[in-house]
Every structure is written in C-alpha cells, then in structure tokens.
Amino acid sequence: MAEKYDFPYCYCCMYLTWIRINRLLNSWDGGAITGALFLELGFPLLAPIINIYMVIQVSGAIAGEFRTGTAKQLLIRPVSRTKLLFVKWFSMAVLGILFYLLIAFVLFLINMTFFGSGVSWADGANTMMSLVAYSLPSMLFYIMLAVLVACLTRSTALTIVITLIPYFFGDIFTILLNFYEWPKWVIFTHLDLINNYYMEETFIQQPFAHAWQSILFIGLHGVIFLVLAHIVFKKRDVL
What we know:
By secondary structure, this protein is mainly alpha-helical. Helix content is 74%, strand content 0%. It has helices at residues 6-27, 37-61, 63-68, 70-75, 81-115, 121-153, 156-163, 165-176, 193-198, 211-235.
C-alpha cells in the first residue's frame, strides 16, 4: 500500500506549481491571457506533478509491499503472480488517466470562465483533450518504468529516484538532438510530446517526423518494461 504521507506531499507540490502558474499569468502582458493560452501553459506544468505522484504510488504498491511483507500475504492466496502484478500496474494507469482528466476538466472550466474570450467551448475542449492525449504516453511510460524498477530493487526510494532520472537528463539529450542524429534513439528525447509536436513555435528539434512514431517508440519501451517486470516478479523470492 502507498504511504499515507504521499497525499500531503502531492498536494503541496500541486499548490506550489499552481503558484508558479499564477505568477506567470500575472507577469504575462499585464496578466491578460485570452484564448487557449491558459490551457497550454497550465496543463504542461501540472502534468509532471501527476507523473511524480503516480511513480510514488507504484513504488508503494509494489516495492513497498515487499518491504512490509504484505506481498507474501497476497501471494499465498489462490491468485497468479501475473494477475496480481497486472492488477497493480493497470489500476495505477487508470488512476493516472483519471487524475489527468480531472486536472484537464478543472483547467478547462477556469480557462473558459476567466480567459476564454475569443474561443468557443468546443475549441477549448478540443485543445484540452489534445494536451491530455499528448501527455498520456509519457505518464504511462513512467508507470511502466516504475513497475520494472520496483520489481528489480524492491526499494521504494530507489524506484522513485531511478524512475525520475528522465526528468533530470531528458533535456540534455533533447539539446544534443539539435547537433547530432543519435539522440533520437534515446527514449528521453521522446517523452515531451507537447513541446516536440504540439507546440507550433518551438526551438526543440523533433526526434521523429511524426508524433505517432514517438508514441510507438515509447509504447515499445513500455511493453518491454512490463514483460521484464512480469518475468522478474514471477521468479522473485518474496520470503
């Protein structure tokens, strides 16, 4: 089970991120933002908080149960290890998608209420759903990576640290992509789909020509992570 103190930390991070958004809004052209700009600024800032929170939840649901011994209690019941691990990562994926939709709905209402002049509700909803769609592959990638690391290390702290490495090193490979060809085969350069493919004006070099190619590349890595995680989980001694 995830630790109880995960929730306050997550809420504090989201509150601090919201303060950053508010300051950005106040400093942007005297605070005047219209159209879908609020959505394009707000959602990419809040989505990483959801990603980090889901990594914490996965590490607690898998590695944390090894540490506390509850994994042994679950495995002595008449349920296969494959099914048990599947339920864990699938439920985390569904939870992450629900969080994304909740954040998107709140931002959409705020945008249309205070900043939606010149844009219809249909266009605003289309923009919001596009942002969600471009962000989902990255969130699912971090969940799948956290599942593999948690099965390998059985350590909550190591799972969180190793899984979040792309947040610190991804930008380095993205910058190198402007000068070399090989970084496009590094998964880190594909995770920021919004800046790579959604934003029209960006200095970032696209790793592939189309967004679906990067999504397929991310999905391939995710499938490999899950297959390895299931193999390790089935053979791992829980005693």
